[in-house]
Amino acid sequence: MKFFSTTIIILFCFLSGFLFHAYQKEWVVLLLPNQTADFQTQTKNSDATFTQQKITLFFWKHGQWRKEHSSVIWSSDAAHNIKTITNNWLTLLEDEKIIENDIQLLSAIITSGKELYLSFNKDLCNAQDSTYTKLMIIHGLLKTIHENKIPVQSVRFLVHHQILIDDHLNFSIPWPITGYIPIS
Amino acid sequence: MSIIQFFSIIIAFLISTHDLQASMHDQFTIMIDPAGDAKHTGRLIQDTLERGISLQCAEQLKTMLTQNFKNVRVILTRVPGETIQPLQNASFANRLGVDLYLSLYFYHEPETPTHVTLYHYLENPVTDFWHQPISLSLYQVNQAHLLNLKTTQAWGKIILEVLQDKKCSKFFNPRGLFGIPFTPLVGIKAPAIAVEVGLKNKQDWQQIIDPLFIAIERIIG
Fold this sequence. Notes:
The complex is a heterodimer of chains A (184) and B (221).
Chain A: H1 2-24, H2 37-47, E1 50-61, E2 64-75, H3 78-95, E3 105-110, E4 115-120, H4 131-147, E5 154-159, E6 162-163, E7 175-176
Parallel strand pairs in A: 4-5
Antiparallel strand pairs in A: 1-2, 3-4, 5-6, 5-7
Chain B: H1 3-26, E1 28-34, E2 44-45, E3 48-49, H2 50-68, E4 72-76, H3 88-96, E5 100-108, E6 114-121, H4 149-164, E7 172-180, E8 192-199, H5 209-220
Parallel strand pairs in B: 1-4, 1-5, 5-8, 6-7
Antiparallel strand pairs in B: 2-3, 6-8
Helix pairs in contact in B: 2-5, 4-5
């Protein structure tokens, strides 16, 4: 009897020690119910409402503004809408061969001061392009966001969450949503 | 020394310093900034780099200006092989108190007529124009352009008018003068204008010399 109880205690201590070690080494991951993806999705979905909406995408080509309409799923979450608009706009510009392929928006965040942070995976502009061409690419995006009534006042451009560095255009400052060239 | 001799020396000294001040005041200093440096090659125009073309253009413009105007002093921001640190040119221009800062840029454009575009620095397209310059005040580096914004625009329009005049410039199609956050012009107090020229062939940069010379002549006049 004494041998049995000693064995049980040794086994219990071994298992407890093993589990604790596994937890420390992250061989075992414990997630509380409120940390699970399912819970987050349900919460987000219950807050947001989705509708179908027509958006207008603008781009500068052959010396004039061109526009294209597209239908997207519109959310009550403005950041979600910006991601949708920007990714559609990037696809359009890739199709028109204005920008390089595989440019993606990594994240979009709107601050309480209505400043929008857009972080891309690479520079939107080609280093060989003229300043005017680069300027009009940026203005195309600003015009698209502005015309689709996204409530932001200025935009900061980032690459991999760092300030976008360009030889000619200063992206260390927020760009007004109405841009620098009168939009007509 | 008699009193007459003493006063004669004083008067002669005052006249000479007055003349020196007058000649200093009459002198018009232009700083020309050719794009690129030893580290930054710039864009590729056919088989030539932007930094080489911009330097050739700046040197030729300097030669023409110094040969034709006695009261014009022209300074280039760099020599071949030199590397420029950020804000170095702005600091140089501000310390020298230059009257005009001209930055030259080139890029390849396959179609003719190629374009020429003028830029000046602007950070806020609305409030920057409300600014009233204050002489005894500390300005941040990104506000230096506010001191001479009206003059910058006026001189930019003069250059644009020359480029639009087909008698002076028939080779390029001017796009306009734009106030944008143009990084190379940050921190310059003097009227600072960047000229970006599209070139089909690498030797076409020579066509921009005469219009720029005429424009500077009108600015000085």
